[in-house]
Amino acid sequence: MLEPRVLQIRPVQTVVKLQLKRMSQYYMANVVVVVLMLSLASLLAFAIDIEDNSGRLGVTLTLVLTSVAFKLLLADSLPRVAYMTMLDKYLLLSFVSLLLISAVAVIPYFILLRTGDNDFAWRVNLYLCMTGFIFMLTTSAGWLFFAQRTNSRALSPSYFSVIKADPAQRWHYYSFAQPHHAA
């Protein structure tokens, strides 16, 4: 760990070099893993009988409500920033995947009604479950890779901006946040 040190002192300027590192292990262990488990639990809806739509939707929509409650609980412990953090993006991704699983879980029932072929409906059910599993794991792994890459990248000077300064009084207020880029 690099200790803060003063590199130069001039009459109106002091340069301080700091090494900053995000400590994201807490959020990975206590948020990302829990949300991933909630998302994977939604696949249990495919184990419920095809004709029991209320049971399937009950499982998935209960998990949607659980994820919303979890997000509201997290809101108190996360910093309030004006942009979406990587964790916010992951929570949104998991919320959307839960809603997609809710919609997809009733497809085998409609196939059963249309064709009357129970075996075919169960095969479709199995394929949908496996596709959901692969989708959740690949999106979570992709998010994790991108988050680790973003986390390990050094903070560039563009992350810091002087928001108020008075060189005569030799004080500065800095903003240490990632700049918000307009789309």
How would you explain this protein's 3D organization?
The protein has 183 residues and is an alpha+beta fold. It contains five helices and four strands, in the order ββαααααββ. The strands form two sheets. A two-stranded antiparallel ribbon has the order 1-2. β3 and β4 form a beta hairpin.
- The percent range for strand residues is 5-15%
Q: Main beta sheet: strand number and arrangement?
A: 2 strands, antiparallel
CATH architectural category of the domain at 21-42 and 49-153: Up-down Bundle
How large is the count of helical segments? 5
Overall pLDDT level: 78
SSE pattern: EEHHHHHEE
Indicate the CATH class of the domain at 21-42 and 49-153. Answer: Mainly Alpha
Order of strands, main sheet, comes to: 1-2
CA-based shape:
elongated
Summarize the amount of helix as a percent range: 55-70%
CATH topology of the domain at 21-42 and 49-153: Methane Monooxygenase Hydroxylase, Chain G, domain 1
Name of the CATH superfamily of the domain at 21-42 and 49-153 = Neurotransmitter-gated ion-channel transmembrane domain
Regions with pLDDT < 50 over 5+ consecutive residues? 158-164, 175-180
Number of strands: 4
